[in-house]
Amino acid sequence: MASETSKRGKLYVVGLGPGNHEHMTFRAKDVLKEADTIIGYDTYVGLIEDLIAGKEVHRYPMTQEVDRANQAIDLADQGRIVCLVSSGDPGIYGMIGLVYEILAKRGWNRQDGLYVECVPGVSSLNSCAALVGSPLMTDFAVVSMSDLLVPWEIILKRVEAAAAGDYVTVIYNPASKKRIHQLKDTREIFLKYRKPDTPVAIVKGAYRDRQDIVVTDLSSMLNFPEMLGMITTVIVGNSSTFSYKEMMINPRGYASKYQLVENKD
Amino acid sequence: MASETSKRGKLYVVGLGPGNHEHMTFRAKDVLKEADTIIGYDTYVGLIEDLIAGKEVHRYPMTQEVDRANQAIDLADQGRIVCLVSSGDPGIYGMIGLVYEILAKRGWNRQDGLYVECVPGVSSLNSCAALVGSPLMTDFAVVSMSDLLVPWEIILKRVEAAAAGDYVTVIYNPASKKRIHQLKDTREIFLKYRKPDTPVAIVKGAYRDRQDIVVTDLSSMLNFPEMLGMITTVIVGNSSTFSYKEMMINPRGYASKYQLVENKD
């Protein structure tokens, strides 16, 4: 039994955080160290070059996610200790979904099948919020604008629900070269429910060298096309968000419910 | 100028992650090391006892958040290097909001005022998702059921919007000793929009010794009262979530949009 187990591979699906080693977890670094095989999108693998010297590395272009997941599972099944890496958190719009979908199709089970572990990380919502102030002190919705895998009508319906429900809204993948209308449509929907001066933060490349942040508002949010792209996240405030010196702040509750100076009374 | 700056204190508002050092970030550990003063809710401080030996430590009961935030700012203003600690991510329903609210009231500004840094961490939504499968592959809403600071009618309106918008929904603070009706009301709302067999995960004490996880469904979710409390998070699936051997899985997109075996063709 022991030798059977020791021969068996492992699959770690690892979140590297925003792409700067400081905001990676200890667990992520530990499993990268333990692994003999690294698989990932070329740019993500590039973020950890210094941590994976001497290991077998499979670099992929941005597409081919299904190939990546299948290869990771196959190599782990053959006894390799594999890290399938991505930036942020693989549990948020990340690779763990595809891995479990494929494993479920193969009849895998957690108890006596391949060891699979999702190593959570600091996702864009966590890192962008930390950089712009305190937008996520209240209920929030997270919506991806990518219509590659989800019909645009569904995304619109979700934006409408978030706007109507007064959710602070975190927008992943706000635009790409081929896709620029989404943020315009989204803004129109929010303007039906929120004031034009509602704070909006645009964060590009959080915690990376090229980090760029603008805190603007609903009326002006389309004036920064150079900020938009696949490493940009947009946060739209709700009715209680206020801007303060280039930050966006959400109070932790309704003003009537607490006093900021309660200790001074 | 240099001596002026070197005398000045710092305030780090630090997320410890789920409460187990493995899932803490390097940045969090580094700033804990740098600090001379630690402030936090007693239970959170207890999670890092081994990292803060020899430092001045201020432990608070669960309430008194305003006192905690004011003290942290005051001590940093006096030149101390302060870590105000909390579990999870201080940017998600955490202490950073109160800190910025108080600083804004005091007229602080980031450019030449006190150095303040929010150190993001792995929040409950990240850690619970990683433990139960892949629920957050699609758009999701995050709602706190605590009505201490937000009127219950507002929370109900948000739950309704999330249910109508087909959002996977992450519920923070689902219940406390005094508060048990919320999850019942919430379930009723979801049942208007989703099937009774929609997967629901209940995660208590993620990554802690007492961790306990149940994957159930909307119809049975109230049958686990012993799981509920302030360290419990509930995840309600959407129309595309399926359960698989005690896990909940969301596909990464609409089935028609991709093939799981595209590489085998």
Describe the structure in brief.
The structure is a homodimer of 265-residue chains. With 265 residues, the first copy, chain A, is of the alpha/beta class.
Explained architecture:
- 2 copies of one chain form a homodimer.
- Chain A is of the alpha/beta class and 265 residues long.
- The first copy, chain A, is 29% helix and 23% strand.
- Chain A is built from 8 helices and 13 strands.
- Chain A has helices spanning 2-7, 26-34, 42-46, 65-77, 96-105, 124-132, 152-164, 181-193; strands spanning 10-15, 37-41, 56-60, 81-86, 115-119, 133-134, 140-144, 168-172, 199-204, 212-217, 232-236, 242-244, 247-249.
- In chain A, helix 4 (65-77) crosses helix 5 and helix 7 packs parallel to helix 8 (181-193).
- The longest helix of chain A is centred in the N-terminal third of the chain and has 13 residues, at 65-77.
- Chains A and B meet through helix 2, helix 4, helix 5, helix 6 and strand 6 of A and helix 2, helix 4, helix 5, helix 6 and strand 6 of B.
What is the rounded Rg of chain A?
21 Å
Spatial strand order of the main sheet of chain A? 3-2-4-1-5
How many strands appear in the DSSP assignment of chain A?
13
SSE order of chain A:
HEHEHEHEHEHEEHEHEEEEE
Question: Main beta sheet of chain A: strand number and arrangement?
Answer: 5 strands, parallel
Which protein chains make the most extensive interface, counting residues with beta carbons within 8 Å of the other chain's beta carbons?
A-B, 90 and 89 residues
Helical coverage of chain A, percent range: 25-40%
The structural class of chain A is: alpha/beta
- Low-confidence spans of chain A: 1-6
Q: What integer is the average pLDDT of chain A? A: 91
Distance between the termini of chain A: 67 Å
Percent strand of chain A equals 15-25%
Helix count of chain A?
Answer: 8
Could you say which overall geometry of chain A the principal axes of the C-alpha atoms support? elongated
Oligomer: homodimer
